[in-house]
Specification:
The protein is α+β, with helices and mostly antiparallel strands and about 400 residues long. It folds into three domains: about 160 residues, no CATH class; about 70 residues; about 130 residues, Histidine kinase-like ATPase, C-terminal domain (Heat Shock Protein 90).
Length: about 400
């Protein structure tokens, strides 16, 4: 009688039946049962110490950070236990996803993310419940090697089947929904911070740019009015009116640029291809734009794509020293892909400044990806990936 073959899904993999044989599989199961006690002692000691010490210190400022570190350490112990089950029992359990600390805004948010990690808490629970089981399996297996030799394969097969169920139940990334909720909460913080920074930028641009010019315009027109009332020379009045006219044109241009920075009209009216061609024409480096899109994505995705390319082209103009660049945009199934290339000096990094890191965080907040390939000496290739959402889904249905 042979064990059935495992299914494609680790969670549906059948438990191996008992058999009267001392083959390699049985010896691995015996080794696993004998190791249960020392491993259980380590896990139980860690879990009790972590909960008792950090729990007792929660009244102080170090309690919750210490508990967060304990949960991260529990993740490491869980990884070792999954490796032991995989090597000795053949249990295929996927590793849980890493906590998205890169998207967290600061230390407090990272601590909160670790405290809400279901994987760490389940691993601590695993360590607590394993001690009595480890004692039982160790004692019976060790005794069986000398007393219960004929039936020991059946006994250890039963023990290890329970071990398999415990590993799958407590150490597998079964609660993917909770992980996604934690990621989305972190992403929400990034979106809020980004929106606040954009509002501060708009306020600063209005205050230092168009508003200041309009104030100067009002003062200049006021002086011109006084000179007209006093009957002074027409040449002075003409010069002041001409200067005011110039200020009006500059203020209007700054307001247009500001409106374009919020959401360009060409993007709304003509789509991503025309908008990217427009922003590429303002780059100091010749840029070739290729857009292969059979439809328009949702307005939010289209806006993120536009501003991502716009900021990357600004970086090329200011920092790359490139002689040529290209922008390619295309759709691949349910993803929108963007690739910006230049033949500049290279050396761009995600940790090299706030610009690249901000773009990566903005794309990560909508379940996107941002990859920079920029060896010293160039060329630089930046690949961005966004989820595709149909534009029609974002439209409010007509009332009727």
């Amino acid at each position: 009688m042979t064990a059935p073959s495992p299914s494609d899904s680790p969670g549906d993999e059948p438990l191996p039946p008992a058999r009267f044989a001392y083959d390699s599989r049985t010896w691995r199961e015996i080794a696993h049962s004998l190791l249960n006690l020392p491993v259980a002692v380590v896990g139980f000691t860690y879990a009790v110490t972590a909960v008792a010490v950090s729990g007792g210190l929660t009244v102080t400022v170090v309690g919750f950070p210490l508990l967060a570190l304990a949960l991260l350490g529990a993740r490491l112990l869980g990884g070792l236990e999954r490796a032991r089950a995989r090597g000795l029992l053949g249990v295929r359990v996927e590793e849980p996803s890493a906590l998205p600390f890169a998207r967290a805004g600061g230390l407090l948010q990272r601590v909160w993310m670790a405290l809400r990690d279901p994987v760490g808490w389940r691993t601590l629970l695993y360590g607590l419940v394993r001690l009595p089981w480890g004692i039982l399996t160790f004692v019976i297996t060790l005794t069986g090697l000398f007393v219960l030799w004929p039936v020991l394969p059946f006994i250890v097969r039963g023990f290890t089947n329970v071990d398999r169920m415990m590993v799958r139940g407590l150490l597998s990334p079964s609660d993917e929904l909770e992980r996604r909720i934690a990621e989305l909460e972190s992403d929400r913080g990034v979106v809020v911070d980004t929106a606040a920074a954009d509002l501060r930028r708009i306020e600063r641009d209005l205050h230092d740019g168009a508003q200041a010019r309009l104030v100067n315009l009002a003062m200049g027109l006021g002086l011109a009015k006084e000179k007209l009332l006093e009957g002074r020379a027409d040449e002075q009045v003409a010069a002041m009116v001409d200067e005011a006219h110039g200020e009006v044109k500059l203020a209007l241009q700054e307001l247009r640029d500001l409106a374009r920075g919020i959401h360009p009209a060409v993007l709304t009216d003509r789509g991503l291809d025309a908008a990217l061609s427009s922003v590429a024409s303002r780059c100091t480096v010749p840029v070739k734009v290729t857009a292969d899109l059979d439809a328009r994505p949702a307005a939010a995705i289209e806006g993120i794509a536009y501003f991502t390319v716009s900021e990357l082209l600004q970086n090329i103009s200011k920092h790359s020293g490139a002689r040529s660049a290209s922008v390619d945009v295309w759709r691949s199934e349910n993803r929108l892909l963007i690739q910006v290339w230049d033949d500049g000096r290279g050396g761009a990094r995600l940790d090299g400044g706030t610009g690249m890191r901000g773009l990566a965080e903005r794309l990560g907040a909508v379940d996107g990806l941002f990859v920079v390939d920029s060896p010293p000496g160039g060329p630089t290739t930046v690949t961005a990936e966004l989820p595709w959402r149909d534009r029609d889904r974002d439209r409010t249905p007509p009332r009727g």
